[in-house]
Amino acid sequence: MKMTPLITSAVMHFGEMGSRWGFNRTVGQILALIVLNEEPISAQEIADALNISRGNTSMGLKELQSWRLVKQHLVPGERKDFFIPAGDIWTLANRVFEERRKREIDPTMSLLRDLLLDEAANEKEANAQQKLNEIHDLLESITAWSEELQHLGPEKLNTLMKLGSGVGRMLELKDKLLPGKNSVN
């Protein structure tokens, strides 16, 4: 499979972004190649296009399957394994966020809960627990809000994102019109 310059550029960038999303460069490139391809793509085509070993390709595909981002696709008359995205772009983005929450936020929330249950031994620890409680409450709010967002369909999410800056301006206007009221920051 020969990639066009546009697709090559996008695939290479996805590889660089992969580490920021929670997986390595090669896995990011494999995901981009599968998402950007119109047709199901075989593991061998992926290996050839990215100039990586078949073993590295298989490991990357297994990781993407564990994240539920790609799935196998049967092509009639073919014996090879083919792969396609496991949903539309919104679905894939939600799954990346969900996996990152499980791997990063959930363990942090567990640690914070444990630390907040401990009895403070002195004033320093009491102060630290107060800050940890603020972090816990913030993460809890963000998690609850993101879970609500995940239940919205792509159309509603798109509309909400377009409203985003307008909502901020409305809150600022409310603060100006109703001074002294508790503002939402």
From TrEMBL:
<dbReference type="GO" id="GO:0003677">
    <property type="term" value="F:DNA binding"/>
</dbReference>
<dbReference type="InterPro" id="IPR000835">
    <property type="entry name" value="HTH_MarR-typ"/>
</dbReference>
<dbReference type="InterPro" id="IPR011991">
    <property type="entry name" value="ArsR-like_HTH"/>
</dbReference>
<dbReference type="GO" id="GO:0003700">
    <property type="term" value="F:DNA-binding transcription factor activity"/>
</dbReference>
<comment type="similarity">
    <text>Belongs to the GbsR family.</text>
</comment>
<keyword id="KW-0805">Transcription regulation</keyword>
<dbReference type="InterPro" id="IPR036390">
    <property type="entry name" value="WH_DNA-bd_sf"/>
</dbReference>
<dbReference type="InterPro" id="IPR036388">
    <property type="entry name" value="WH-like_DNA-bd_sf"/>
</dbReference>
<dbReference type="Pfam" id="PF12802">
    <property type="entry name" value="MarR_2"/>
</dbReference>
<protein>
    <recommendedName>
        <fullName>HTH-type transcriptional regulator</fullName>
    </recommendedName>
</protein>
<feature type="domain" description="HTH marR-type">
    <location>
        <begin position="22"/>
        <end position="79"/>
    </location>
</feature>
<keyword id="KW-0804">Transcription</keyword>
<keyword id="KW-0238">DNA-binding</keyword>
<dbReference type="InterPro" id="IPR026282">
    <property type="entry name" value="MJ1563"/>
</dbReference>
<dbReference type="InterPro" id="IPR052362">
    <property type="entry name" value="HTH-GbsR_regulator"/>
</dbReference>
